[in-house]
Each structure stands twice: as C-alpha cells, then as structure tokens.
Specification:
about 5% helix; six-stranded antiparallel β-sheet; mainly beta; about 350 residues
Length: about 350
Amino acid sequence: MAAVVVASVILALAVTGNGGSGASTATTTTTSVPALAAPPTSTTITPRSTTTTTITPSRPQAGWAVASRSARGVLVDFRMVSVGGVAFRAVRLRARTTLLRWHVGSTDPSAASLVPADAGPVVDWLTEGRAGVVAVFNGAFKQAAHAGGSAVDGLTLVPLERGLMTIALDAAGHWTMGVWGRAGFPPRGFRPIALRQNLAPLVLGGRPTAAAASPQWQQWGATIGNVPAVARSGLGEDAAGNLVYVATMTPVTSLQLARALVAAGAVTAMELDINPFWPIVGASFAPLHAAGPLPVQLPRSMHSPTIYEVGGWTRDFFVALAEPASWTCHWSSPGVRPTGRVQPQPLRLVGRCH
C-alpha cells in the first residue's frame, strides 16, 4: 500500500457573529414521497467477499492530506485549492469507504417536527454514532428561496423540480448527483431515501456550465449587499465517484466556485449555501462515536462544525460516516417503501463482519 501522505492541518478558529442573512422559514404541507419502483442498488461499489483476491484499500493521493483512515484505507482527505488567487477548502469523501446522510434543520425546511431522529437537526448518535462520524458540512438554500425540493424518510418537505441539480442518497448512504427529470437520473435501480436540490447545475461534464458564467448572477442566489461575489460553498462528484465539498469565505462569483470544484476533481457539481453566515465544514481525524473534535475546517468560517453534534442546528446539513473496517459488510438502513408513511432509517450492519 502506498505511503500515507502526512500533512499538518491549519485549524480554523470558529468565531461568532451575526453576519449573513437571518434564518427564515416558510410553512409547507408535508406529504408522502413514494419509493421508486426499482430493485435496490447503488452507485458506490461494495466489494464482495472473496478468498482468492485481495481488495485494494483506498489509497492516499498526492496533493491531498489524509484526515481519517481505516483498514479499508482513506476515508476522508482534504486540501486547499487555489483559483484566481483565492484559496478554497476542499474536503473529499471516498466512495468505497464512507457513506452520507442528510439532516433537516430545526426550522428549515419546515415540518422538521415530523422527521424521524435519524434525519433530525442533530447527529443521530444512537445509530450514526455506531458507524462513526468522519465529516459534516452545510446544506443548501432556505426553503423560502424556492431553489429546489427535498425529501427524506418517506416525506416530501418541498416538491422536487425538474431541471434542477440534485443529490440523491440511498439506504446504504451511497450517493449520485444529476439533473432531476433528465433521462438516466436517478440511475436505473437507484432507490433514494433522501433527495436535496439546489438550483441549476454548476458543473457538468467536468466543466462550468454556461449558467455558472452568466452575467445574470442573481440566479445563483440573493447575496448580502446585492453583489455578485460572496462566500460560497458547493458539492461535486469526481470521475471515481468520490464526493467533494468545496467552499471559501473569500467573496467569489458562481463561476469561481465552479472552477474551484473542477480543480478539486468534480465532473458534476451543484452550489450549496452562500453568504458569510452559512458555509460550514468539519472533518475528524478518526471516526467519532460521540461528540468530539472536527479539526479540519473552513478557514474563517463563522461557525464551528460542532454545532451539528449537540443541540442541533436550524438549517439542513450532511453527515459522513465510516464504513466498517471489513470489506464483507456495510452499513445500511431499511429503505423507503411505497407505504405513504414516514419511515425512520436507523443504520444496521449488513453482511458478515470480522
């Protein structure tokens, strides 16, 4: 196995402040979202047990510092990406070793009281803590921004819209990204338990979209001071299926964010939340089974990522977890069935763990 890249981490101080837009909510009716009528599958490859083949661990990559690792190899790595003189924090989740879950904020999207604990406004330590938290990061725009829909655990919180960029998560925490309503997305057989949209595609085919470079910058969200350059965050998928979060607190345009995502390896990407108050990311040095340090952070972020660990947060966010050390088992939840009811998704081990 290749030698592990050792790098020092610049710890970002979490400072308080009242900058950014204030939280606002819109009342909506929560309805059931049916499961897709297809057999369960995933876009992340789970290696099968074998007695004749040694599975190659997830290896370190030059230019990326390893944040956490297990017997499977690298879980999360990170780096700084420079585009046009602006430094962006990039945090990457390896597809073969991690899984992802989406959480609803305490006030946004609305109807949070109807969401089960596994998707509530705080890390679900009862089940997610069993796997081990390796990273957390902010979600997307407020419900009142009308930037797209969302659904989780059998609930549609905001109706999904055709043509918008969407991240879909299945019962095993595997992800896929694409344009909702476009042929081939979600992939055939992919059964999502969570869906989150936010605006049009920012990156497609490994390039910034025409919309990303459009002079009509207002389509990428209302900004503090009504200026095109603000703090921004985004989420992309690379050619290997890994998920890459990219953000900066330096004021940038949508095109600069798109270029940073491409520089970090993204071939498909969407914008997440913007303005100084909202970009937040944290990664641990080992899987956390209870609230603990998340030292890999976004420099100059206005919040510590530990806000997601205890007490809860007002806005939606994502939680990345570690797969078991053994290749012969993985974490999964029951999945959403077409029952018309809310369906909690507690994690359990599937397969044979050593």
